[in-house]
TrEMBL record:
Keyword field contains DNA-binding: yes
Main location: nucleus
Family: Belongs to the CENP-X/MHF2 family.
Localization annotation: Nucleus
Cellular component GO terms, alphabetical: FANCM-MHF complex
The protein, known as: Unnamed protein product
Gene3D superfamilies: Histone, subunit A
A GO molecular-function descriptor: protein heterodimerization activity
Keywords in alphabetical order: DNA damage, DNA repair, DNA-binding, Nucleus
Annotated GO biological process: DNA repair; kinetochore assembly; replication fork processing; resolution of meiotic recombination intermediates
DNA-binding is among the record's keywords: yes
Source organism per UniProt: Ambrosiozyma monospora (Yeast)
InterPro entries: CENP-X, Histone-fold
Length: 115
């Protein structure tokens, strides 16, 4: 498991296991967007549960990899721009654990190839 840089790793992993997309929502998305003949196509409950788990794993991995990119960026930028001690602490508090689309963009290519 990748570290988020704090003591909440275990609770975050447990929370991630609890959060899943509703299989009914997935079936609705499939029938609305991707199935050519939704009336004639049947999707089993196990298939919907599997897709839900796959999406959960994908999202969790995206968050973990983005956070690793954020931590690497922080290491690279530490000391690059001199600030006062108070300002640096304030910036760290504001940015602690904050992921941005830039971090996701850095890992999106390899993430898609891995999945």
């Amino acid at each position: 498991m990748a570290s988020l840089g704090n003591d909440k790793d275990i609770s975050l992993e447990q929370e991630a296991e609890d959060v899943r997309l509703d299989p009914v929502l997935i079936a609705r998305i499939f029938s609305t967007i991707s199935l050519e003949t939704p009336q004639e196509t049947r999707i089993t409950k196990k298939t919907l549960e599997l897709v839900s788990e796959y999406i959960r794993l994908y999202a969790t991995e995206a968050i973990l990899r983005s956070n690793e990119a954020r931590l690497e960026e922080k290491k690279k930028n530490d000391g690059l721009y001199p600030t006062t001690h108070g300002q640096a602490e304030k910036d760290d508090l504001l940015q602690e654990g904050l992921l941005d689309a830039v971090h996701l963009k850095e890992v999106a290519g390899l993430l898609n190839l891995d999945f």
